[in-house]
Each structure stands twice: as C-alpha cells, then as structure tokens.
Write a structure and sequence with these properties.
about 130 residues, alpha+beta, about 30% helix, about 20% strand, elongated, signal
C-alpha cells in the first residue's frame, strides 16, 4: 500500500513539474527581414511608423527591411520660411524600429516606446535564417 501511495504522489509530482515547465516556455521574438517588398508593404510600414512617432508619412527606401532588421528614422528638422533649419528646435533623437518575427507573425517594434505593431501585409523570416553568417 505504501508503494502504491508513493507511486501516486511521484506521478502527481512529475505531472505538476511537466505542466509548470510547459507554461514557462515562451515564444521569443527574433530579428527578421522581409521576404519580399511591395508598395502595399511599404505603405503599411510607413503607417505604423507614423502611428509611433506622429507627423507625416516617412520616406522609406524600396528595399527597406530586405537586408537588415533595423532602421533609424530621424525626426523632421523644423525650418523657417526660407528653408533654413531653426536653431535649437531639433531636440528629438532618431527612432529605432526593429522588424521581428514571433510565432510566424511579422511585427514592427518601436524601440523607444516598446510598442509592437502587427503587420498584416508583410511577410518576414528570421534574419539569421536568411543570413546565417550574421
């Protein structure tokens, strides 16, 4: 009887340990690159960046995020009516945006605020998968 009771408790303990370990496994976002680009993907990226920093749509290169998982977006420099930069008015640092993939979902992360934007038009893959030498 003692052996049976011991086996029941040992089995219960093992099951609790396994369940606990399974709950602690979390998906980790990995730096990613786009698998392909299109005007729709570029517009989606511009709109998400605009949500994060405000202002007008930013200008992005056609090959944005195809080779690197990070881009820096500088704030616009305020200018006078003759187009000259206003002294002392440009205080914001550049914003870092990281393309990442988590559980097959392509996301854009604004590093300063930590905001995550799920991308629905963009398809991406882990940067280390496309460029294993990095």
């Amino acid at each position: 009887m003692k052996t049976t009771l011991f086996l029941k408790y040992a089995t219960l303990g093992s099951m609790l340990l396994i369940v606990s370990a399974c709950q602690q496994v979390q998906a980790v976002a990995e730096p990613a690159v786009l698998t392909e680009s299109s005007p729709e993907v570029k517009l989606e990226l511009q709109q998400q960046i605009q949500k994060a920093v405000g202002g007008p749509l930013v200008k992005l290169a056609d090959n944005v995020y195809l080779f690197e998982s990070q881009i820096w977006v500088e704030s616009a420099v305020l200018r006078d009516d003759k187009g000259r930069p206003l002294d002392g008015r440009h205080m914001d640092l550049a914003n870092l945006f990281i393309l990442q993939i988590e559980q097959g979902q392509c996301q854009l992360k604004h590093n300063k605020s930590g905001q995550l934007f799920v991308l629905t038009k963009a398809k991406c893959m882990a940067e280390k998968q496309r460029f294993p030498e990095k």
